[in-house]
Amino acid sequence: MGCGNFFFTLVITFSVALITYNIIISANAPLKQEFPGPSNPSSSSTSRGFISVDPIIKMPLDRSRTSAAKKRLFHTAVTSSDSVYNTWQCRIMYYWFKKFKDGPNSEMGGFTRILHSGKPDKFMDEIPTFVAKQLPAGLDQGYIVLNRPWAFVQWLQQADIKEDYILMSEPDHIIVKPIPNLSKDGLGAAFPFFYIEPKKYETILRKFFPEDKGPITNIDPIGNSPVIVGKESLKKIAPTWMNMSLAMKKDPEADKAFGWVLEMYAYAVASALHDVGNILYKDFMLQPPWDTEIGKKFIIHYTYGCDYDMKGKLTYGKIGEWRFDKRSYDSVWPPRNLPLPPPGVPESVVTLVKMVNEATANIPNWGS
């Protein structure tokens, strides 16, 4: 047996042991459902951002005539800590989810905030929430994102999920129109990230993706979010994703190469190991300020800071006279009625601020 095969077998064996151990020590998590610029590498946010522009990847998908009888509902799941930073984002995200859930062509089903703090918070009645246990102390090695795959493993094992598909989303996503089920023919639907480059890191990835699993191009340039994937497929992928994340974090070469997006690579590899391919759907989301128009996009991902002078000129890398950056509110609630951008600022940024303002104006007890 080759070295790669031996490592993969070891990872899977460790996966079973770790999951079994954690299920034994974890009490049943409380469950409440309705049938949920650049990143600073030292930030505790689970979002990422990089300076560049994604390649255009088009896939022909016709979802314009979704009849009620043929709906393929998906459940939206958002992982979150109990920090102020994640919480205000989740409240805004859920507000817009409810606004578009029953819109034309929507195949949006239920919603769950997967809260990986290990304890309930005071927003359980506002947002359908599943409380997941955190990883044992020290296991994340300071990389808080490792709690995400472990939280998904618990949720998929313990929750009663009615839908056959899952949309994995994040707190800093705002839905801008009803979302149909973009997956097709057993493939997931995922947003392609320009900075996930399996070919570039083939030597490292072969430690985790043996050659007998096929070419390195079988690993899609994706993270786990946004992704729409079959529930049964995700139940298989999630434990491997969790243990692949832990294994990569413990590997000095992989940890150094992948950095803050390590868990994204782990999901991409886990998906490929289980032969779940993905439609690379560029119109899944937009990322202001680099994407300037809403167009056919379904989600605004506000991971980058938006800085402009009062003439509407982007001043990226320099704090603008007008700005919106989620990191300005890492420990405080954004105020209601944020000032709108000056004339000349792109539609995407104007829409983002207007949608934040509408949500905060209508969510009860905002800022409490």
From TrEMBL:
It is found in: Membrane. It is a single-pass membrane protein. Its main location: membrane. Residues 74-366 form the Hydroxyproline O-arabinosyltransferase-like domain. It comes from the Eukaryota. GO terms for molecular function: glycosyltransferase activity. The chain crosses the membrane at residues 6-25. Keywords: Glycosyltransferase, Membrane, Transferase, Transmembrane, Transmembrane helix. GO terms for cellular component: membrane. This is Hydroxyproline O-arabinosyltransferase-like domain-containing protein. It comes from Nyssa sinensis.
